[in-house]
């Protein structure tokens, strides 16, 4: 039986220890960056020392998926933790669009703000801008600085009379936009926000404008052997390095989760409208070993870099081929922050916290591949079934990540079992199926 003196001593010791505050959260989200565009994912000439170091100090995922193979729905999945079709916005928005992500959806920013977080979004929004109820500052972000949609949504690339403008909160502050320095200016804003946060936990969402076409970069950061595209990627790497350096300078490095991702794969099948001005086909990223690209559901469309760093919580030097996805970020952040998920809706995301900590395999065992309102493929373990226009395809992604060998005819029972799950989920979400 513990003595009263020992009990009081223990209480005093506990009171003397500072209570760890909720972790800061930073999401870095590239636009159209392919799976193989970073050195740590295999690019032979692009140098990304900061992101490589971030991967070495945490977890690098090699089977990490965006929620969709193009812009708007990919952001929907990340910020809601739900498949975009379930969240009500499976297609892209444009400068002339009205409304956006349904106001009934709860964004990660709203949920964290309600639980004491200071919040800021810097960069591409693309979830609705007209009326103002759809802007970032109405969706849980205390402040905003960036473009309301993709950086190509202006003539000659897109037919619109709405000018592309840089916004601060709800007001335009620059037109025309000086795109060559956007990544650097976004980084300056991020550093200021981090330094101003003080003792308050913060959520910083930084969806870069690039390497989405039209790409450009300032000359301040040097020249890559991979040309202009390499310059753009290396500038994003510099940005990540500045943010990580600031965390260390502010002595909050060990209390900050940083995640680096991309919204989809490279835009390899460029429409003719994009080959205007200075745009070139080789300005669209590295094809890598993956089949497919932005806009389709072969692996090159939704499989993207996924790097998690949280010193003292996520062990260093982890590399995993287990399945994980951007829709898992919402519930994972909630667990790490000690915040309960809202209970009034279904979440497709899964809590990855034990996986990130190196204590367990990823709890995600499957993944559904959407292209807009269409459900086109389903992965379970190593096997992926995909509905092509002519017939079902079946691939083993462990020994054939490039999807070169269709094994449906050799494994028809397995393929049909996976197809049944795909069709059942399509029925649940009222998704369309490709004509087979």
Largest sheet: 10 strands, mixed
CATH C-level name of the largest domain: Alpha Beta
| CATH-defined topology of the largest domain | Alkaline Phosphatase, subunit A
Strand content: 15-25%
- CATH homologous superfamily (4th level) name of the largest domain: Alkaline Phosphatase, subunit A
Number of strands: 16
Instruction: Report the structural category.
Output: alpha/beta
Tell me the distance between the termini: 73 Å
* Count of individual domains: 2
**Oligomerization status of the protein chains:** single chain
Residue share in helix: 25-40%
Radius of gyration: 22 Å
Structure annotation, total helices: 10
Low-confidence segments, given as residue ranges, are 1-19
How are the strands ordered across the major sheet?
Answer: 8-7-6-4-9-1-10-11-2-12
Question: At CATH's second level, what is the architecture of the largest domain?
Answer: 3-Layer(aba) Sandwich
- H/E element sequence: HEHEHHEHEEEEEHEHEEEHHEEEEH
Output mean pLDDT. Answer: 94
- What does the overall shape look like? globular
Would you mind describing this structure in some detail?
The protein has 436 residues and is of the alpha/beta class. The protein folds into two domains: 24-359, Alkaline Phosphatase, subunit A (3-Layer(aba) Sandwich), CATH 3.40.720; 373-429, Arylsulfatase, C-terminal domain (2-Layer Sandwich). The protein contains ten helices and 16 strands. The strands form three sheets. It has a ten-stranded mixed beta sheet with strand order 8-7-6-4-9-1-10-11-2-12, sandwiched between helices. A four-stranded antiparallel beta sheet has the order 13-14-15-16, with helices on one face. Helix 6 (182-196) packs parallel to helix 7 (227-249). The longest helix is centred in the middle third of the chain and has 23 residues, at 227-249. It starts with a helix and ends in a 7-residue tail after the last helix. The model is unreliable at 1-19 (pLDDT under 50).
